[in-house]
Amino acid sequence: MAIVEEQVHPEVHNGATPPVGVGAEIPVENPATGEIVRTVPDLDGAAVAEMAARGRAAQTAWEAIGFAGRAKIMLRAQKWLIDNSERVIETIVSETGKTWEDAEFAEIAYAANAFGFWAKATERYLGDERIKSAQLLVKGKKLILRYRPLGLIGVIGPWNYPLTNSFGDSIPALMAGNSVILKPSEVTPLTSLLMAEALSECGLPEHVFQVATGRGGTGAALIDNVDMIMFTGSTRTGRMVAQEAAKRLIPCSLELGGKDPMIVLSDADLERAANLAVYYSMQNAGQTCISIERVYVEEPIYDQFVARVAEKTRALRVGKPSGPGSVDVGAITFPPQLDIISEHVSDAVAKGAKALTGGKAVENVPGRFYEPTVLVDVDHSMKIMTEETFGPTLPIMKVSDAEEAVRLANESPYGLGASVFTRDTERGEALAKRIHAGATNVNDALINYTALELPMGGAKASGLGHRHGAGGIRKYCSQQAIVITPRLALKREVHMFPYKAKTTRMLMRFFRLMYGRGKRD
Ligand code: NDP
Fold first, then answer.
1. 331 and which of 31, 130, 133, 470 could share a cystine (Cβ 3.0–4.6 Å)?
2. CATH topology for 22-256+468-478?
3. Using one digit for the tens of pLDDT, what is the confidence trace for 126-145?
4. Does this model's pTM top 0.85?
5. Residues with CB under 6 A from ligand 1
6. pLDDT above 70: residue 7
7. For 420, phi and psi rounded to 5 degrees?
8. Which H helix or E strand runs over 418?
């Protein structure tokens, strides 16, 4: 394998001196070509602890800059990202093997929006709030709810969206006034390193944002050193992260796996439903936590829907991305993922499913690709309908009615996203509310992710907590209640010592008046 670029320099960690505790270098492979594009250090616990000490030392001044000062740097970063979009896309494509468009639409556009959104929204979400209380004992006092940064946040990210899902969660954490150490996936660390350079160029003080490259052990060391952990990845690793966070009694927020259902009712706009089914199952080669992973179609339109989906899928171009418009479906980023996809398809076929198109890995090419695959005659005895496949596959199941579709949609340990297609939007909304998922789109899919005002997170085994919306930044803070009693206050309050029977009775009369008059059945 050819080494086409030189090694990463320690300076890109946004730290002045090289980190200690550097283990063997990790090669970063381009999954579309098999070439090693760079190597990065595998940092151990001592290196992470040193970074944590630097991050903590830098945090106080960063917090003191205030919302406006931090927003200025984020807005500069937004412009930097657009000005340098080609370089960032090339970096993302080089380590993920995804198409140019998948990098542009789902990563650059997301991060550019996120820089601006959090720059503007943070003060609204985190500014001091004056609270009103009906409690007599605090009458006349000033009640303030304050959000203060937790200090040092550890962000651990997956390989499927190195900018959106690894780096993206760092933006609100930073805007809240925290320092951040990001541990990207060992498979895709280059985008995070580039963003560290970017933030540094945009004026972010040294050590406020650092990147700890390494494997799972580096992630584990991060949990040992931070005040809160934001994790995106598999449910399996997420459970371990939660256990480690519990040992230290630090909060964690978990964005985990999914098996998102799509329901197509017989009155749906078939052409739109078919287009969206193909796009949102095959986009990013199906390696999206909220991609459509299974479809339930009402019997009267099943054949028409399947025919359209199969035809559109057959037309997709798969292969090595070489610039805009070159291919529709890119590489499988993570080597073991190709085996999981193959195993799910083989298991389905062995149990009676039929592949209308695709059904195997692309052979005799240097990179890792899987043929876009449409499966029919599927049911819930098959892994492809119950476990996260994370590949360009679309199993379609016939159902007798919407009730059966909702029941099957909910028959899953996961609850990340879902979608319902019907021209009757009121009915769609009613069905959406019955699906146990963090987000359900009616006549669309995934699009909730772009509305940063809306919470995004998983139900059941798909996660704990949310990114986006007020909760998506308040989780990086502790809440502090401040109560201020005015200067001209009583010398002694009525409930205090010495206790006197007359006062006690008087207070009880008052409590009765306040709380004892409600109607009781
Ligand atoms: P993994 O759970 O395998 O890894 C996620 C991150 O955790 C990686 O950086 C990994 O490092 C690190 N890690 C591994 N072991 C530990 C450990 N013991 N302690 C701390 N960190 C550790 O997930 P993938 O990278 O395979 O990502 C794919 C998964 O992510 C899918 O299930 C997908 O659904 C989910 N996902 C969820 C999203 C959501 O918003 N809900 C969004 C995107 C993806 P290393 O890679 O070096 O092993």
1. 31
2. Aldehyde Dehydrogenase; Chain A, domain 1 (3.40.605)
3. 999 999 999 988 999 999 99
4. yes
5. 156-160, 165, 183, 185-187, 215-216, 219-220, 232-234, 237, 240-241, 255-258, 289, 334, 388, 390, 416, 458, 463
6. no
7. -130, 130
8. strand 417-421
